[in-house]
Amino acid sequence: MPSHSETRLLRYSPDLMYAVVADVEKYPQFLPWCVGLRVLSREIVKSREVQRAEMLVGFGALRERYTSRVVLDPTARTVDVTQTEGPFRQLETHWRLAPEGEGCRVDFTIAFEFKSRLLGAVAGKAFEHVLLKMTDAFEARAKILSDQPT
Questions:
Q1: Are strands 62-73 and 48-59 parallel, antiparallel or unpaired?
Q2: Angstrom distance (rounded) from CA 28 to CA 25
Q3: pLDDT on residue 149
């Protein structure tokens, strides 16, 4: 199963980076492959916000919709996402954001496998390209937010 992990040290605060990653409804504003996103439900479970979110992603002419369970833990500064319905046999992402010097250490992992071999063959390479750019998009969003006057 394809997976990707990376760690980055960024100049932004862990609170800002957590806010960027946790604000899933804003993803269509800065993730170029995220065509749409809506939160279907929210609940608090053991001091964590658990959302059910539906995302529409686009790779060229290909469009796919999937639903995920998103667990937001502001105290630990973690975001865990697991697909519950959609084109993947498995799709999980994990974000860990921690203070590091004057900035933030970002640990990001993703593992995925398409249900359909055909879809995997068609979309797999595009998806791999996208996930390699994932952290770049979140870092760019943090830069935009940190440059805005308060």
A1: antiparallel
A2: 7
A3: 58
The two three-digit tokens of residue 50, written as one number: 């658990």
Cα angle for residues 7, 83, 121 (degrees, 5° grid) = 80
Domain boundaries, the chain: 3-147
Task: Find out whether 8 and 15 touch, Cβ atoms under 8 Å.
Answer: no
Nearest by Cα to 77 from 133, 19, 9, 6? 19
Q: Copy the structure tokens of residue 57.
A: 């992603």
Query: What pLDDT band is residue 130 in, cutting at 50, 70 and 90?
Result: low
- Residue 126 predicted with pLDDT over 90: no
Helices 117-147/14-22 angle, 10° precision? 130
Helices marked H in 97-116: none
pLDDT score recorded for residue 63: 84
Alpha carbon 81 to its chain's center: 7
Cα gap 120→118, rounded to integer Å: 5
CB 81 within 8 A of CB 62: no
CATH class of 3-147: alpha beta
